[in-house]
Specification:
The chain is built from four helices and ten strands, in the order βββββββαββαβαα. It is α+β, with helices and mostly antiparallel strands and about 200 residues long. The strands form three sheets. Strands 1, 2, 3, 4 and 5 form a five-stranded antiparallel beta sheet that branches. The protein has a three-stranded mixed beta sheet with strand order 8-9-10, sandwiched between helices.
Length: about 200
């Protein structure tokens, strides 16, 4: 079986690079050939493909990190937000290697690994702010998603913590966010927002 990560909303198959979040797609002998219907598509290079509807991130070591279901929404300030759409915009920034967006204390918060971060060094920790990068991510989000879907904080981290089952460790992210001081939170806040 071949595992691909593709653009979740695109009609055509757009294969994403390692680290990008997208829809899990399978090809190979285990995928029945010639099947028509929802979820099955034909690709000239990969053959018959099964679109699973699962949002995942394929890591460089071959691990697949489950991020949710396509169209999975969270409620933030009374508004429905599709987390995958936020992550997709964040991952387009050239300085971002991986990211994860979660709801913490009723706020949308994005954690990202800078592309230049050294892989596998040390434990999960919050890194010093890269103001130019954070501002660039906010500018892209401000242009691409509604204001209520722009995260309150965008925080660089050394790695994204993973549970023993391979899922994003949301508890660790929430604990790290809750431990930040107001001064630290201000560094990661949207500079164009009137309130953080």
């Amino acid at each position: 079986i071949k595992v691909l990560v593709i653009a979740p909303e695109a009609e055509d198959v757009v294969v994403f690079p390692l680290g990008a979040e997208g829809e899990l797609c399978l090809s190979g002998a285990a995928v029945p050939g010639g099947v028509d219907g929802e979820g099955y598509i034909q690709h000239p290079v990969y053959g018959d493909l099964l679109r699973t509807g699962d949002l995942v991130r394929l890591l460089t070591g071959g691990e697949v990190v489950y991020c949710g279901r396509k169209g999975e929404e969270v409620l933030v300030r009374g508004q429905k937000v599709e987390v995958g759409g936020v992550d997709e915009v964040v991952l387009e920034h050239p300085a971002v290697g991986e990211c994860g967006t979660v709801v913490v204390e009723g706020k949308l918060v994005t954690f990202f690994i800078p592309r230049d971060a050294k892989k596998g060094e040390g434990e999960f920790k919050i890194l010093d702010v890269q103001r130019e990068v954070v501002e660039g991510i906010y500018a892209a989000l401000d242009a691409a998603v509604p204001a209520y879907a722009v995260p309150t904080s965008i925080i660089p981290v050394s790695s994204l913590p993973i549970t023993s089952s391979g899922d994003l460790d949301i508890s660790s992210l929430k604990a790290a966010y809750s431990a930040l001081t107001p001064a630290q939170l201000a560094q990661f806040a949207n500079p164009s927002a009137s309130t953080a």
